[in-house]
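Quick check before the chapter quiz. The format below is the same one you will see on the exam, so make sure you can read both the input and the output lines.
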Amino acid sequence: MTTISFGVVELYHESHWDGPPLMLVSGLNGVASFWVKQVPVLAKDFRVIVHDHRGTGQSTHSRIGYSVDQMAADVLKLMDALGIGSAHVAGHSTGGAIGQILAEDHPARVRSLVLSATWAGPDPYFRRLFESRKAILQTMGVEAYLRASVLSLATPRWISENDALIVEQQRQQLAAAAPVEIQASRIDAIVRFDRRARLGQIRCPTLVIVAADDMITPAFYSDELAGKIPGAKLAVLEYGGHFAPLISPESYNAAVGEFLRAHR
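Here is the expected output.
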């Protein structure tokens, strides 16, 4: 557990075990701990690297205009600092947007690609959803934003069964939260992201995975990705919402692990 520095930026990261490198890139929340239920499983076969995005967690909370291209550039800088020429890349949600950029713009750096609960470009549903979330953040504050967000990130049953856990998680998130302007800029970044026109350029082995009940990046977004990426495989989990890696880790890890090991 350490940080790497480039310029005025420090990126917190963790590296687990040794083997073929696997970059696990988290979503809009941006923190390495999102992958807590994947790291122990995947580290049996890979050197697993996770990090806090710039603007989140223990990394520098830069006051910049964020973009997904900038987030992808940070991942490349992290790989360079760790001496990783190429890696398997698994990105969840915003991490999947980052993964698309890496596979399209830097194909030699990506051995295989997992696009988890992600999207190729915005549509009216996506824009309405994130405009609403941003409005809550800016008008009601971070605590209200966290309380509202979980209702679309997780499933109703999981929320009902894990109320105390959610309270504690949100307490920790609130204590470590970046300023509202940074969080809002990161939301703007994902609403601007659109790589539909370049999906056919992705040539590495690709798995697209989503839960059928995902309300943030609905399954038809994954249908689009799998349909336009040559040779991509599609896995649809029965349950788990947008946080399937946390809510349905057994089925998620089985599908992702099988794919990654096949291309190890």
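If your answer matched, good. The first strand starts at residue 2 and ends at 6.
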